[in-house]
């Protein structure tokens, strides 16, 4: 029914007639809501089905992949395990590929090098769909897995947020309040909600949403819909907060813990030792095994502390199962005074000289050689021999996880600087020596600190020798430079956009109401001209004859703008007639805007490269710390230049605002024209952002592959071919930064532009598959990233809630664009009081400032304002706790460790390492864990020669000088070391272990064989030494040769005698079967020593120089010789 209502104003009755005429209806029924119910049902049904379908697909794929992974793991046979290419073999192939690069280019080796350096599995490329998200932690650490999980979870969150706010998009599209300037996306904003009346002075609260149906037209007040849209936005933001809080405080710690329990990594068996004495007398001296005193004494100290902790815990089962505590690898970090990167550059230049010489490019070779000579001379002047360099810190790998945790538990108080200082003071007072057990934890009088280390690939070796104070100073200075650079880039981008805006003609149509129109400023102050004011009420009265004969260009532009882009395009006569110049101006403005966007992109790319360099100059110790710094800087730059420059260019400040002169825009409020300019630009940018980053990654990968195939024949040396066939790194910092930018821009404007939620969901779900493809098929194997970036990014995103609430109140409380009724009760009183005080303070009437209090207490905004207050309160508490955490929190943590010491000594079970009988080992020892690590996530060592950044120059580096660290145990081999048999110092009865069950010969046979060798050769050699001086000199030479052959402390030295030639394999079998009683060193002399080249390596299965219960190799040789 279209009955007239006497309570309606004449303007409303007239507007209803106009709306009915525009929609070809007889009247507008304000009492029927059939069409509105149908739209509600349609939106809820479609959004629910889409969300449910995508959610079920994601859950199904995750469950299916997890089940297939479990089935594959359970169905793996011994043959598969034997045939599987371990990472040790891969590492060996990589090293051989570099060392054998003296030949002509070999494409097969280059392809093999490409597979070895990429995240392949058993030498095969991983499938995109078949690789589960859990496997990504094996590729790039738990941080890489968390990135992809975060993409998926946030994508689902924004998808549900888009479903909640889709009803707003539907009613916005069905309206026509915003000016039509050819931007289709403007219709999806709340600036378009409601029907417009050309030339009417209708109050904003009397505006209606008109829907046309077959039975007629229906209308509902805009104020009714704004209240519902406000509540839907509130529910969406609560969903976002809940998702972030769950991810930040529940999911990330849980996933990290689960990954740590499921995956065996190097850091589970390792400790990091710092605060060490940088130097002490005699530390550079070496023993007969070529191990310097520093390494020897530190190894002994760590083994003593591990033995003490075992005795304190009274765990004889562990001793029986794993033997005495041992340090399996010790890597000292020397102070190269920042010259380690120079040494790597030197090694790279040596490769370049070799390549140029081979290619007969003598000019390039001479140029490279000149640089190489300069670097060599400079290093020789500034660097001492490696053994004399000071020690910064050390990384130690021990035999069991329990030993590593025991060391961390023993030094649990060393992480507190104050307690370490007190220990240091008390330890130097002789009176307290008897009652200060902390002195036993000192190393050469220093209170050292022991903590859990990062993964080997997460270490940046070039920065390890940078002092803490120097790093903090550099970080502070670089942060100041960063702020200055961001400001400069912001000014440049602002200038580019402002210049583009000044060359575009203003196209604002004024309704004649202060709350609905933009602020018209003096655009050409130099000429003193007043800008033309285009009032819609005047434009609608102009006839066609007036436009063709008497109208000015401004009036024609005003009339065409009032008609709208869509109506003009539907009328060919207007396109070629009156509005042709207006359309040309619109096209010119679009071109200028595109040019400004290109300039902004160039500025962003240039500044981004500079910010990446600044992040590296902070000299972080780990890749995670470096990536977190890169992420923060890139995110700040992109968010400012993408989301806020366009806002500032078009912003007109309120009176009295500081630095208001720099803003030259026309919009002091979120009026309908603001959505046509700023809103359309933001929506266009975010629509491109949903597709471009992911597509660029895939296209770049394809271009790289195409370029590689075309450039293969141009490479003249194998080194060049290997460099060509190596994928670029997976830049996870830039990807986290892009994710942060997307979230912040979306959260800032989504209250008034709800379609941004859908664009954000599309970006995350689409980018998930694109970046997964890039990681598995187009990137180098990334380092093992920890949870730093995942925690930092989720914490930063929490601050976007405040931006959303502030901009939401600003947009949803706009009295003209989004009219809403004020709430009643005490909130209404507060609103009235706030408006009165604001008006009195400003001395102005109208505008945005004097209605700020009213916006806080409207039906569409009061709940968002309450949420903002809650967030501010929580962040205040969080800030206070953060401040207290750096002071009182240290004391609380110390007390907690004192009261609950065993909570920090938890060791994950080795339940995933089952033997053939299905029984689980009590504890996982390093020899067995090393094989697993090498087969999944290499390297299983902290040696710099095994680090991916230095492996490619290992040969040139070794030619130039020794590696900057060495280990007191045997060097890393391509194949894993055989596990040691179990020994016990408590019970002499043999304890059968897994390794002992597969001994090649019986123990008694091995012991007898070793005894016979000793009696036949060692005793006779000792007797002959006293007979003739000539034999004594020969034995002396043989002992020196044995000393060089046993530098790794493996047990056997040299061998001689005619009988040895007939036993090429017996020493290996006997060595594999030995126990503690058979670990005495056998020194064999004679001309047959050359026939036993593998005896030294074979003895390593039962003889280890690191054992604190065994004498050193030198002592054993001396005892045998006597």
How would you portray this structure in words?
It is a single chain. The chain has 1122 residues and is mostly helical. Helices cover 57% and strands 3% of the residues. The strands form two sheets. It has a four-stranded antiparallel sheet. A three-stranded mixed sheet has the order 1-3-2. Strand 2 (208-213) and strand 3 (216-221) form a beta hairpin. The longest helix has 41 residues, at 34-74. The radius of gyration is 38 Å and the shape is elongated. It starts with 9 loop residues before the first helix and ends with a helix. Mean pLDDT is 75; it is low at 73-88, 431-435, 521-528, 841-850, 903-922, 959-963, 966-1001 and 1042-1122.
Distance between the termini: 120 Å
C-alpha geometry: elongated
Low-confidence stretches: 73-88, 431-435, 521-528, 841-850, 903-922, 959-963, 966-1001, 1042-1122
* DSSP strand content: under 5%
Number of helices: 39
Q: Average pLDDT across residues?
A: 75
Radius of gyration: 38 Å
Structural class, judged by helices and strands?
A: mainly alpha
Report the sheet with the most strands, covering strand number, pairing sense and barrel closure: 4 strands, antiparallel
SS elements, strand count: 7
Q: How much helix, percentage-wise, in residues? A: 55-70%
Strand order of the largest sheet: 5-6-4-7
């Amino acid at each position: 029914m279209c009955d007239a209502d006497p309570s309606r104003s004449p303007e409303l009755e007239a507007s209803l007639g106009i709306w009915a005429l525009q929609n070809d209806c007889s009247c507008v029924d304000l009492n029927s809501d059939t069409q509105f119910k149908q739209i509600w049902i349609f939106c809820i049904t479609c959004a629910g089905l889409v969300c449910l379908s995508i959610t079920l697909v994601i859950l199904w794929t995750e469950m299916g992949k997890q089940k297939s992974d479990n089935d594959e793991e359970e169905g793996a046979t011994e043959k598969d395990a034997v045939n599987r290419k371990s990472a040790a073999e891969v590492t060996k192939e990589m090293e051989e590929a570099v060392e054998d690069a003296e030949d002509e280019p070999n494409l097969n080796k280059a392809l093999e090098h490409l597979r070895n350096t990429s995240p392949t599995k058993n030498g095969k490329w991983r499938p995109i769909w078949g690789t589960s998200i859990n496997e990504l932690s094996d590729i790039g650490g738990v941080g890489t897995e968390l990135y992809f999980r975060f993409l998926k979870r946030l994508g689902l969150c924004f998808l549900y947020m888009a479903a909640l706010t889709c009803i707003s998009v539907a009613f916005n599209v069905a309206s026509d309040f915003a000016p039509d300037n050819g931007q289709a996306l403007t219709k999806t904003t709340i600036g378009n909600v409601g029907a417009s009346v050309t030339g009417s002075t209708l109050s904003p609260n009397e505006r209606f949403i008109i829907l046309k149906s077959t039975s007629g037209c229906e209308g509902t007040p805009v104020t009714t819909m704004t209240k519902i849209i406000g509540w839907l936005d509130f529910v969406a933001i609560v969903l976002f907060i809940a998702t972030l809080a769950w991810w930040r405080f529940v999911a990330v710690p849980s996933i990290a813990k689960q990954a740590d329990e499921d995956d065996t990594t190097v850091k589970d068996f390792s400790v990091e030792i710092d605060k060490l004495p940088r130097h002490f007398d005699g530390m550079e001296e070496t023993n007969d095994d070529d191990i310097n005193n520093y390494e020897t004494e530190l190894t002994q100290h760590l083994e003593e502390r591990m033995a003490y902790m075992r005795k304190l815990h009274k765990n004889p089962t562990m001793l029986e199962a794993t033997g005495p505590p041992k340090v399996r690898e010790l890597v000292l970090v020397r102070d190269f005074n920042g010259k380690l990167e120079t040494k790597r550059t030197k090694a790279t230049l040596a490769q370049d000289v070799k390549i140029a010489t081979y290619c007969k490019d003598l000019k390039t070779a001479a140029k490279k050689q000149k640089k190489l000579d300069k670097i060599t001379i400079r290093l020789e002047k500034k660097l001492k021999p490696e053994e004399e360099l000071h020690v910064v810190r050390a990384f130690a790998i021990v035999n069991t996880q329990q030993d590593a945790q025991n060391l961390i538990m023993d030094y649990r108080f060393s992480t507190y600087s104050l307690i370490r200082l007190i220990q240091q003071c008390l330890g130097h007072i002789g009176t307290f020596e008897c009652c200060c057990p902390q002195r036993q934890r000192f190393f050469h009088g220093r209170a050292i600190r022991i903590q859990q280390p990062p993964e080997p690939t997460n270490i940046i070796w070039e920065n390890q020798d940078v002092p803490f104070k120097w790093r903090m100073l550099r970080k502070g200075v670089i942060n100041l430079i960063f702020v200055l650079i961001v400001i400069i880039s912001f000014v440049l981008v602002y200038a580019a956009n402002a210049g583009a805006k000044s060359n575009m003609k203003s196209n604002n149509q004024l309704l004649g109401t202060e709350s609905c129109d933009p602020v018209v400023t003096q655009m050409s102050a130099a000429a003193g001209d007043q800008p033309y004011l285009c009032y819609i009420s005047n434009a609608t009265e102009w006839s066609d004859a007036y436009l063709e004969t008497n109208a000015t260009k401004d009036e024609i532009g005003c009339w065409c703008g009032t008609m709208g882009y869509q109506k003009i395009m539907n009328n060919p006569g207007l396109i070629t007639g009156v509005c042709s110049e207006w359309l040309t101006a619109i096209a010119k403005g679009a071109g200028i805007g595109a040019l400004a966007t290109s300039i902004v992109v160039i500025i962003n790319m240039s500044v981004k490269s500079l910010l990446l360099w600044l992040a590296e100059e902070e000299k972080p110790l780990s890749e995670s710390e470096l990536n977190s710094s890169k992420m923060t800087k890139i995110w700040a730059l992109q968010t400012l230049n993408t989301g806020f420059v366009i806002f500032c260019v078009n912003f007109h400040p309120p009176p009295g605002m500081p630095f208001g002169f720099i803003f030259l825009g026309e919009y002091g409020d979120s009026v309908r024209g603001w959505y046509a300019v700023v809103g359309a630009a933001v929506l266009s940018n975010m629509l491109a952002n949903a597709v471009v980053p992911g597509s660029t990654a895939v296209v770049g990968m394809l271009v790289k592959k195409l370029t590689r195939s075309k450039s293969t024949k141009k490479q003249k040396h194998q080194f060049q071919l290997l460099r060509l066939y190596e994928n670029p790194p997976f830049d996870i910092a830039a990807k986290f930064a892009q994710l942060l930018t997307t979230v912040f821009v979306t959260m800032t404007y989504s209250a008034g532009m709800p379609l941004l939620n859908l664009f954000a969901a599309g970006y995350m779900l689409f980018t998930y598959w694109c970046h997964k493809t890039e990681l598995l098929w187009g990137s180098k194997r990334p380092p093992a990233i920890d949870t730093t970036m995942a925690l930092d990014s989720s914490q930063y995103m929490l601050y976007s809630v405040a931006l959303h609430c502030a901009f939401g109140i600003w947009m949803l409380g706009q009295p003209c664009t989004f009219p809403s009724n004020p709430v009643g009760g005490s909130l209404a009183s507060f609103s009235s009081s706030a408006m009165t005080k604001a008006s009195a303070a400003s001395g102005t009437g109208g505008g945005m400032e004097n209605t700020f209090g009213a916006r806080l207490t409207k039906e569409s905004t009061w709940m968002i304002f309450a949420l903002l207050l809650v967030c501010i309160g929580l962040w205040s508490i969080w800030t206070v706790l953060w401040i207290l955490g750096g002071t009182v929190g240290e004391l609380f943590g110390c007390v907690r460790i004192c009261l609950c010491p065993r909570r920090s000594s938890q060791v994950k079970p080795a339940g995933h390492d089952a033997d053939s009988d299905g029984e689980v080992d009590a504890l996982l020892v390093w020899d067995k864990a090393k094989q697993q690590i090498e087969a999944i996530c290499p390297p299983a060592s902290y040696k710099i020669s095994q680090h991916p950044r230095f492996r490619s120059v290992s040969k040139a580096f070794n030619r130039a000088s020794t590696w900057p660290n060495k280990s007191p145990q045997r060097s890393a081999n391509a194949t894993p070391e055989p596990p040691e048999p179990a020994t016990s110092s408590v019970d002499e009865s043999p304890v059968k272990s897994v390794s002992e069950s597969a001994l090649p010969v019986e123990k008694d046979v091995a012991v007898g064989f070793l005894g016979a060798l000793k009696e036949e050769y060692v005793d006779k050699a000792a007797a002959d030494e006293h007979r003739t001086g000539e034999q004594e000199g020969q034995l002396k030479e043989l002992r020196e040769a044995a000393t060089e052959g046993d530098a790794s402390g493996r047990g056997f030295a040299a061998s001689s005698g005619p009988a040895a030639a007939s036993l090429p394999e017996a020493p290996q079998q006997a060595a594999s079967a030995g126990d503690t009683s058979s670990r005495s060193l056998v020194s064999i002399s004679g001309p047959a020593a050359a026939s036993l080249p593998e005896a030294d390596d074979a003895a390593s299965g039962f003889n280890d120089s690191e054992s604190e219960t065994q004498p050193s190799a030198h002592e054993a040789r001396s005892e045998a010789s006597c």
